UniProtKB/TrEMBL annotation:
The chain crosses the membrane at residues 458-480. GO terms for biological process: actomyosin structure organization. It holds the Pfam family FERM_M. One of its GO terms (cellular component) is adherens junction. Residues 1-266 form the FERM domain. It comes from Centropus unirufus. The keyword Transmembrane helix applies. It is found in: Cell junction, Adherens junction. PROSITE patterns: FERM_1, FERM_3. Coiled coil: none annotated. This is FERM domain-containing protein 5.
């Protein structure tokens, strides 16, 4: 990449490589050394957005989930969305009841290995695939039963389409969880979906707010505020606390982008949003892409031969690209093992086989909004699964790998020694010392960033002050020196206070200033 290359250049290059036209629902995600997630901003330089040293590790992801993935224009787009939702299922983001889970896994099995063949698929063959964070023998038997009896004859494309149709009916479809705490200190996951804002606690969806009910989002430090206006003209403010100010800002930016994408009719309606009521304070952000309605209209105009889809080799571990079997890398720190492993095995491999999408569907997710602190809220929440919502990948998603470790892993992969599933699980439970390992690489980064933010705030304040003084000076000159005789100016000039100011202060100051100017001109003339 050239140093001044924008994010849009990299994204367009990638979509061209994938032969992808419906690209507006995708994005490029990366994680900084402090393990904070970011979406690559297309209007800014790629290099300037990275706090790490090259080479940079990024991952291709669905950024805006289509409202109806089954209605996408091209098969390659549906395949890419299928890969993303399959990943969500494995990482615990797409949580569902056992019956739904078995059907989804059976669709994946049919798409990857085809029809059941007793000669190729011995007893317990479904246990060789990892579909979810946790498996049980009962669930594996149910998956195999559905695959044998109900899905015979379905092509990979048909199975993927049925998978998408089922997935988009689930309560956690399209959820990209942000771990937070509510005002009572209870753990919660906030997320933005195609239909609105959701809050997940335990195995329940405790809040669902449609996009047209969200009036404002802002953040201050670690605190995130969501302003809601309901039909009864009842206004509610939901408050949540993110782990860090950076995580809170990322949550706010994701909310601004999702609301603009799903709510607005056209991109010309997008406005710059400030995180504070004072325009010289806080962060300012503007969504720079097209909105959902424009994407659908553009997709409807696509007329080309369907591009060929190169699906990955169908091996037992392929149901989740991050699951492989092999010796452990005991010489590599656990927190870094997973970083390199996902970026190579999942980020890059899925990237090669992926594609994109477009949305539309009648919003049937009209759940009632449960106000915080209400006694009846427990009766109105939606149970989403048999287990608690606890996405394993919400804290350390799409990590950044160090170059030396990446080369080490690549060489081991080439020699047939991939990472094991235990290593990925271990990395989730890394010690605080390990989690702080990357922060130690750049000890002065956080204080320097805080100083920079303070300096920027002071500069904004000074600029605003100077601007206000300049406007007041122009108004004063117009009042005292111009011949404008409007009613507004006439009323001001006739007040006793203005007459006193004009004759006692302004006129002497003007004479003094004129005298000084003449003296300077005479001095310059004499020299």
């Amino acid at each position: 990449l050239q140093r001044d290359a924008k994010g849009q250049y990299l994204f367009d290059l990638l979509c061209h490589h994938l032969n992808l036209l419906e690209k507006d629902y995708f994005g490029i995600r990366f994680v900084d050394p402090d393990k904070q997630r970011h979406w690559l901003e297309f209007t800014k330089s790629v290099v300037k957005q990275m706090r790490a040293q090259p080479p940079f590790t990024m991952c291709f992801r669905v950024k805006f989930y289509p409202t109806d993935p089954a209605a996408l224009k091209e098969e390659i787009t549906r395949y890419l969305v299928f890969l993303q939702i399959k990943r969500d299922l494995y990482h615990g983001r797409l949580l569902c009841k056992t019956s739904d889970a078995a059907l989804l896994a059976a669709y994946i099995l049919q798409a990857e290995i085809g029809d059941y063949d007793p000669g190729k698929h011995p007893e317990g063959y479904s246990s060789k695939f990892q579909f979810f964070p946790k498996h049980s023998e009962k669930l594996e038997r149910k998956i195999a039963e559905i695959h044998k009896s109900e899905l015979s004859g379905q092509t990979p494309a048909t199975s993927e389409l049925n998978f998408l149709r089922k997935a988009q009916t689930l309560e956690t479809y399209g959820v990209d969880p942000h771990p937070c705490k509510d005002v009572s200190g209870n753990a919660a996951f906030l997320a933005f979906t195609p239909f609105g804002f959701v809050v997940l606690q335990g195995n329940k969806r405790v809040h669902f707010i449609k996009w047209n009910e969200v009036t404002k989002m802002k953040f201050e430090g670690k605190t995130f505020y969501l302003y809601v206006s309901q039909k009864e003209e009842k206004k509610i403010v939901l408050t949540y606390f993110a782990p860090t100010p950076e995580a809170c800002k990322h949550l706010w930016k994701c909310g601004i982008e999702n609301q603009a994408f799903y709510k607005l009719e056209k991109s010309s309606q997008v406005r710059t949003v400030s995180s504070s009521n004072l325009f010289f304070k806080g962060s300012r952000f503007r969504y720079s892409g097209r909105v959902a309605k424009e994407v659908m209209e553009s997709s409807a105009k696509i007329k080309r031969e369907p591009p060929e889809i190169h699906r990955a080799g169908l091996v037992p571990s392929r149901s989740c690209p991050s699951i492989t079997h092999g010796p452990r890398l005991s010489s590599v720190p656990r927190t870094r093992r997973r970083a390199v492993h996902i970026s190579i095995m999942e980020g890059l491999e899925s990237l090669r086989d992926s594609a994109h999408s477009t949305p539309v569907r009648s919003a049937s997710h009209g759940d009632a909004f449960a106000a915080p602190g209400r006694a009846e809220s427990s009766e109105r929440v939606a149970v989403i699964a048999d287990e608690n919502y606890s996405p394993a990948d919400s804290v350390l998603p799409t990590p950044v790998a160090e170059h030396s470790l990446e080369l080490l892993l690549l060489s081991r992969q080439a020699n047939g020694a991939p990472c094991s599933i235990e290593e990925e699980r271990e990395s989730e439970a890394g010690t605080p010392e390990e989690r702080g390992e990357l922060r130690a690489l750049c000890p002065g980064a956080a204080p320097a960033e805080q100083v920079n933010k303070f300096v920027l705030s002071v500069l904004r304040l000074l600029l605003v002050t100077v601007g206000l003084l300049f406007v007041l000076l122009l108004l004063l000159i117009v009042l005292t020196e111009s011949d404008l005789d409007t009613a507004f100016f006439r009323d001001i000039r006739q007040t006793p206070e203005f007459e006193q100011f004009h004759y006692q202060y302004f006129c002497p100051l003007r004479r003094w200033f004129a005298c000084k100017v003449r003296a300077v001109v005479n001095l310059l003339t004499d020299t």
